[in-house]
Design goal:
This protein is an alpha/beta fold. The protein has 2 domains: about 140 residues, no CATH class; about 100 residues, no CATH class. It has 10 helices and 8 strands.
Amino acid sequence: MNEQEKMRTRAKELHAAGIIKQVLAWEAGAFPSYPAPAFFTKPNAFEKIVYNEFCTANLSKYVINITEKTLIFLRPCDAHSFAQLVKENQVKRENTYVIAVGCEGCVQVDEGEARDLLESCRTCTKTDYPLFDEEINTQNNPRESTNKAARFAEVTRLDSEENTARYAFWQAHFSQCIRCNACRNICPTCHCKECVMDSDHPLDGQFYHAIRALHQDGRCTDCGQCSRVCPRGIPVHLLNRKLIYTSNK
């Protein structure tokens, strides 16, 4: 039985036992390469749960403020975001039942076609699960041997550049920002009900991303969702990763 079938089976068992009321997982979309986060409340819908290399969304974002006992499947990157939300009192641990699942990484999709692994997956070093109730194939995290230096390779490369070159790099990216707020909306640790970014005097791309990065300092779990959803391809995660790198020196 593969991971997907185990997840479906366990969801049915836990629901039948009355341990959970609903399930948060990934559901097949109109196209196989675009599954989306979804809540499942009926046992006959559990067969729609999917789990594959296209499940790019971090589920922890969607568990904020739930009130019913919810089963949620978490990979290592999701689990670290989930733990941060519990720490920040955005999720009541008693309202969740966490099943840790193994992860081989997710792929970038371009016009419906699978490309390489996402950058966040290529450089991922997370193999542990800070909080969970049970596990399914958690030994299946092949990036355990990832060279940890690769995670910060681009950060250190930029650090080696002259100030003018670094400024030119970021200015080129920030000038592409259209302030769509996709990075903010997808970020698990962006959960303020009132955001300083929503002011009567909108900030330009440079200040917007600088302020976001500072707000994430010490809180970012480096899940890479911000860069994944950016329609302009801005490497937003590098700002957060720079702060992580500096604090870990």
